[in-house]
């Protein structure tokens, strides 16, 4: 991803910290929703675009839709956007703008959220999104708009459905089984407010609404407060399984901008230290053109390598096997913009009561 931000955003929020938090929140939320951890986002580059989109009294060009349209049209200050994405090998660009910009603007009855170009489709991508800095994580607007770029639509009944070229289940989901005339208390990331989940204009900050976005993508098998966060095998338009859709669309999105290296070769994993009380240092060989490494743990219940023990740029980490688990199987893979290597040979680590 290529991130753009404005001087005000950097001043008010510390742009690099906000960007790191957006990436971390996105990756944690998809992982917690059952998305394969090989589908993740990372920062290709981040640029201060040196303008705050101050209100122009003649064109009034300072609302989020104006800004999003400028991005779509590569109008100033976005003239270099396609070139910069190519240079950074970015597939998607996200602009963080100051919400106080919109306070000055004409859209005063609107949330200071974000947007995506409505002409975007999976076969003809316009892979840009905008989010105000305060809403980016305040009500998860940044992951939400990224979700649109990745093919997602709002919940059933909302006119903004799945992007052309994505399955019908690529939707947000509102808390189910809410008694009539009562408000829902949550929606998944792709929830677009509306219905019984309303955003209270200006009365409360984005992180303190009656109906909040929870950091989960719809999945009928993942529960929140005892209720499923998605639906499947209902009438097609009622299906909501964004986690499944992301597993289908994210590998395609990764090919929107060509990446110059093949996926890395498979690293070799080894364990160090004695395993005393389950503590191990795991290390792996560094691989050419690897950008991230993922240490995965085998889940004997699900019978798959689905538990992420480490994701990052390093070549070692510590793990602690709890006595109740007894032993773990671990394996590592190396990833870059072309995908991930196959998993390494597995290494077993076992809880031991004695330090050798
Ligand atoms: Zn939306």
Explained architecture:
With 356 residues, the protein is α/β, with parallel strands linked by helices. It has two domains: 2-253, Collagenase (Catalytic Domain), CATH 3.40.390; 269-350, Immunoglobulin-like (Sandwich). Helices cover 21% and strands 21% of the residues. The protein has eight helices and 17 strands. It has helices at 7-13, 15-32, 64-73, 81-88, 99-104, 133-138, 141-149, 242-253; strands at 2-5, 45-48, 93-97, 114-115, 128-132, 186-187, 212-213, 223-224, 227-228, 269-272, 279-284, 292-299, 304-312, 316-320, 327-336, 339-340, 347-350. Strands 2-1-3-5-4 form a five-stranded mixed beta sheet, with helices on both faces. Strands 12, 13, 15, 16 and 17 form a five-stranded antiparallel beta sheet that branches. Strand 8 and strand 9 (227-228) form a beta hairpin. Helix 1 packs across helix 2 (15-32). Mean pLDDT is 91; it is low at 103-109. It binds zinc ion (ZN). Zinc ion binds at residues 144, 148, 154, 160, 192.
The rough form would be described as globular
**What is the third-level CATH name, the topology of the largest domain?**
Collagenase (Catalytic Domain)
Q: Please identify, by name, the CATH architecture of the largest domain.
A: 3-Layer(aba) Sandwich
How would a textbook summarize the main sheet? 5 strands, mixed
Put simply, the count of helices is 8
What bound compounds does this protein have? zinc ion
H/E topology pattern: EHHEHHEHEEHHEEEEHEEEEEEEE
Strand content: 15-25%
Strand order of the largest sheet: 2-1-3-5-4
The radius of gyration is 22 Å
